[in-house]
């Protein structure tokens, strides 16, 4: 029997696996906001919900099983009651679709696995159904009673019938409005009030007998556990029953079922956020109700980690005031960088807070290492505030330990000021925290260890998003590194673009060992050629198909003076990544066989990718290499990211110090060429203008309104030309330079070209092109006025390089002009004759200058439609040979003789 064909579904709505009533309710509610959407039910392990779904919802709404749908056709994916990609495995294939648009409606807290969405609402109300109900109310949509009942069911379920402390006023408002739409509370009561089977009563008794109350930081927490070889349906129902029967404030019910431990958590206490705890186990939920399914760990291991989390997350008995160092040594806002470095040296400080002494206001944190490096760069007299961490976190004396751990270990802030009534009363240093954690290591559960939280394995992504041949090269590199007892990593933009699912086959490898020797060995293995650069300890492998693989020795770069080329020292992968420009580029994935696919993220790149932020790695980055300013803008516009506040401030600081003037013209030109190759070049130029970077490069660069208008047309024309996939790839920088120099005198243009260190030949060619273009524009207008033949236009434009024609096309918006130029580029420019000089030779014409003239005459006839085939072209050649005066040629002596003899 043939399998039924799958249906196309450009717009689908779905929710997390093991769906609950809020998931179902949210899907139904979302269907009113997205008419025509296909609802994909993810499945549920709760019998009550499953039976209700099968008996009612399946027949009432447009629900489909995921197996019925061709997921490759999905263009818009609406996720409700979750944003975590890992919780929607049933639609995993859809995430690979190009240009997929994701909308999310969710009430759960943020998670590292959250997808990037373009539309939706994320609000911490009691249920997702509440969020969507308010959207429906705002749009004035009327519901049917059945719809109102199902949506209300989700609100009642996720708020515990409005008894959970996560319930918000908006939940009551939504339910009240649903009543006006015909919501049947009797139906909801029947569905939420569930009778227990005999098996469930037995298990409930076992849970009650095992229940124990633990006093954790003054909060009574109850744990209960059961073990069974079979899966227990409605395990969450048993947890509800225990809470109702025993009036428990916080409950963690654990059930070992077959090969995993199921955790159901409920909290009516504001001190305990069970969603945060279950998220640490890979689950989800919110502050009042959450769950997790934990594989490959015993019940004992889960309980140990649970108690470690509880001891960490519940407000500690001793506040920050017992942990902090006091009094705080501070740096005054008016101090120079040298003065700040001297104070930190005197007291042996790794960092210190900067304070406005008049107001007592905390401004930021300055690290000693950064201050010393700034002094070494000759920046002693710059204000200390220029290189501080401005967006530094601070805490109050009663802040819990978990927040301190997140700031110091998670965010990498070396020192955390403690502020009471607007004034710094002390600081918590990394050393203070380490000393406490040495005494009480259980305060940091495994899931909160900073190194562990930044590591994940992306082996699956490598296989899914890279060509098989490239994955094979990665494996070969890893196997070779194992043979040489070295560690090998793919690094930088290659890894970044895998995470962002952006095509990038430019492979960069870093070896913790001799990179050049490794490149030579890998090149031999892959049959490639190797070019080594011993000064920088790097090499390039050129494979037979032309692909390049860059190989470097893990290294730390330091700069002898601002804007200098780097000096290189051997180092580890962490230090190698630290030398890079931005966090999003400071990523590595290990290729050794035992660790293949292990993602290394020391600096929070995954978080910045998720938040769409360009963030620099250290405060002196732009001082040491001002070209990074241009790269920050290029990446921000390419990926539609924002430049972080601290990073933007450091850019302005570097420009204020005149760092762009110290940059060599060649390095500046290379970066500008890279910008001009981007599809967002104009956006880059606009941001450069707004940061006053253009004028810092050269006073002539103003980006006037007329230039902006011309550049907009250039972007459109270049995009059009790229889509033609013609053989002549234009040098974009020439076209953009033409626009930036449009209207300027030759002397000004030459000054700009010299700033970019163009060679004398490049400058002369550029100036000649400007002159040539003006002549071509004049000749075109005359041709148009005289209504000349196409061949005349073609021969005129042949004098211009393709960059000149594209600039010409950009400068004139008239449809007729663009049609003529488009016809030239797409049809006339590369039109070839069906004959050649060989045919002239066979026709009896001696070789000589006449060949070129004759072929040009034949080409003109072909372009004008008078000699479109080979026979017509040969006939024209015969006519020309018979009567050379036809093209103004004197007869060849041999031709005269032959003519007389006849």
From TrEMBL:
The keyword RNA-binding applies. InterPro entries: CBS_dom, CBS_dom_sf, DHH_sf, DHHA1_dom, NT_sf, PolA_pol_head_dom, PolyA_RNA-bd, tRNA_nt/polyA_polymerase. One of its GO terms (molecular function) is nucleotide binding. Keywords: CBS domain, Magnesium, Metal-binding, Nucleotide-binding, Nucleotidyltransferase, RNA-binding, Transferase, tRNA processing, tRNA-binding. Belongs to the tRNA nucleotidyltransferase/poly(A) polymerase family. One of its GO terms (biological process) is tRNA processing. PROSITE patterns: CBS. The keyword Nucleotidyltransferase applies. SUPFAM superfamilies: CBS-domain pair (SSF54631), DHH phosphoesterases (SSF64182), Nucleotidyltransferase (SSF81301), Poly A polymerase C-terminal region-like (SSF81891). Residues 324-381, 388-446 form the CBS domain. Its cofactor is Mg(2+). This is Polynucleotide adenylyltransferase region.
